[in-house]
Amino acid sequence: MVGNSIVEVLERVVVPKNKQYIYLRGNGKGRTAIVYDECSDNNSESATFTVEANNFVAFGITFKNNAERGLPNLPRNQSVAAKVAGDKVAFYHCGFYSPHNTLFDNKGRHFYESCYIQGNIDFIFGRGQSLFQANGRNDILGSIAAHNRKSADDSSGFVFINGKVYGVGEVYLGRANEAHSRIIFANTYFSKTISPSAGATGVTLVTQGEDDCHGPGSDLQNRAEWARQFSKEEVEPFLSIDFINGTEWLPAYY
């Protein structure tokens, strides 16, 4: 990759389990992209980029699925941009784009810094233990995040900190895919696109809520009955890389 040229790799890419300690670098998320066009009723099969290996780092790359949304023969039409299934995986200055189910944060400890994620309908989902310092944009009504935590003893969760959420229409902050779903937004800007009800109702075991968020979508009136406002003591364990044991594996330059 030379100079200021824009490079697109038009294929599906998989980093398998036996290829550890890979560092994938591009010229920036606006100049280097891995792009494919695939939709399926299976999230894994539709993914443009899949990382199954541990100890993986990507820097300055966009991952994009260009599949058309709403195909008649594929009503669920899952079109994943990236599936992250390895442990100790980090993305820096990366972009993720898809019309549906953008980022499959499947499992493991993950870190996203200065990333941009755009999509619809639970467009960040999975059961990962992940810290996001990222901006997100929605296009139609759905949820920003849907987390699959099945037990109170499970250390996983999605934590969003120091980012921005914006888009068109309305979007819920989170949806509980399992009884113990954990989604936390802290010091995050919410545009008016945030639906005040925050998500589905009638869920009592989830840990979903906010701390010190701001913007026109941060008005707490009409939040779902289970949505929480955390105290500083409650939220503190989630607000640093210690939540993902990051001091043990994140690159030294972080």
From TrEMBL:
<keyword id="KW-0378">Hydrolase</keyword>
<dbReference type="InterPro" id="IPR012334">
    <property type="entry name" value="Pectin_lyas_fold"/>
</dbReference>
<comment type="pathway">
    <text>Glycan metabolism; pectin degradation; 2-dehydro-3-deoxy-D-gluconate from pectin: step 1/5.</text>
</comment>
<dbReference type="GO" id="GO:0045490">
    <property type="term" value="P:pectin catabolic process"/>
</dbReference>
<dbReference type="InterPro" id="IPR011050">
    <property type="entry name" value="Pectin_lyase_fold/virulence"/>
</dbReference>
<dbReference type="Pfam" id="PF01095">
    <property type="entry name" value="Pectinesterase"/>
</dbReference>
<feature type="domain" description="Pectinesterase catalytic">
    <location>
        <begin position="11"/>
        <end position="246"/>
    </location>
</feature>
<dbReference type="InterPro" id="IPR000070">
    <property type="entry name" value="Pectinesterase_cat"/>
</dbReference>
<comment type="similarity">
    <text>Belongs to the pectinesterase family.</text>
</comment>
<keyword id="KW-0063">Aspartyl esterase</keyword>
<protein>
    <recommendedName>
        <fullName>pectinesterase</fullName>
        <ecNumber>3.1.1.11</ecNumber>
    </recommendedName>
</protein>
<dbReference type="GO" id="GO:0030599">
    <property type="term" value="F:pectinesterase activity"/>
</dbReference>
<dbReference type="GO" id="GO:0042545">
    <property type="term" value="P:cell wall modification"/>
</dbReference>
